[in-house]
Amino acid sequence: MKSVKSDTEMIKDDENVRFVIGEMNKYSEMVMKMIIWEYSQEAPITKAIGASPEEIRDMRLDACKESVNSPLSILAFLGDKCIGWVLNYIKTNIKKCDEDPNLSFNNDFTERIAENKYGNLKANRIGAISDEITKNFTYFIPKCKKLFVLHIIFVQPAFGGNGIATKLTEKSIELARKNQCDYIMSVPSNIKSAHIFKKVQNFVI
Questions:
Q1: Which ranges of the chain have pLDDT less than 70?
Q2: CATH of 7-203, one of 3.40.630.30, 3.10.350.10, 1.10.3720.10, 3.30.420.40
């Protein structure tokens, strides 16, 4: 009897993985569901705060409204199954900042959490932390006119360790070069992403 390969066995053959660029009009709804029900539940900050998919839904929809519809986002398919993606977009309305974020970091999130932007405490906490981490980032890239934002990268855990996230990152760098961006920016939420970004050309364009 001929053995049937499992998905994880098939993925070891690179030819079985198909990368799709810029078809988010077809896949944005599917990706948003994956963000809410899969990616967010694997993210360290969501785990630490103990937020459920329902609690972070509105926050994620708001945070991803630009990247989830971007023609620069890339999806990875194994057959007809989407097993990962990287959400990218280009930012050109870049405001100059002279304030060093390292010297102005505010770890008191009380006021911002109290604004109740997302309707529940856990989502408000995550949103406040994310906003503080990314504020005034232009201080470090004062001459940037065109910024490629690698917003979120995700590969389903069952398919991790096969180089898919690395390839998604490499393809994102190619898009940044093709679109003549000055810099790439990403804020990794876990050590695996940080390791990939460090390994792949140190994000130098």
A1: 1-15, 201-205
A2: 3.40.630.30
